[in-house]
């Protein structure tokens, strides 16, 4: 099985965003929470679109 590096990087970035949400909650920073959630949705949305494109192109095997 071959590692699909773009998806691994996106998963790591999403995990960092989820951690940032927790840190922002601990710091009671509403702005931090909102920014982290927006970035998380952007990363996940981009990942799902890329996965769909790769699947249609037959690259996911």
Short description:
The chain is mostly helical and 61 residues long. The chain has helices at 5-27, 30-57.
Architecture overview:
The protein has 61 residues and is mostly helical. It is 84% helix and 0% strand. Helix 1 (5-27) runs antiparallel to helix 2. The longest helix is centred in the C-terminal third of the chain and has 28 residues, at 30-57.
Helix-strand category: mainly alpha
**What is the C-alpha radius of gyration, as a whole number of Å?**
14 Å
Along the chain, the helix and strand elements come as: HH
| Cα shape | elongated
Low-confidence segments, given as residue ranges, are none
**Number of separate helices:** 2
Distance between the termini: 10 Å
Strand content: under 5%
The multimeric state of the shown protein is single chain
Question: Average pLDDT across residues?
Answer: 95
Task: Estimate percent helicity.
Answer: over 70%
SS elements, strand count: 0
Taking the sheet with the most strands, its summary is: none
Q: What's the topology here?
A:
Layout: H1 5-27, H2 30-57
Helix pairs in contact: 1-2
Quickly list its features:
single chain, 61 residues, mainly alpha, 84% helix
């Amino acid at each position: 099985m071959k590692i699909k590096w773009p998806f691994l990087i996106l998963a790591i970035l999403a995990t960092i965003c989820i951690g940032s949400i927790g840190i922002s909650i601990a710091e009671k920073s509403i702005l931090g929470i909102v920014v982290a959630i927006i970035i998380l949705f952007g990363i996940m949305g981009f990942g799902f679109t890329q996965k769909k494109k790769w699947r249609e192109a037959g690259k996911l095997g």
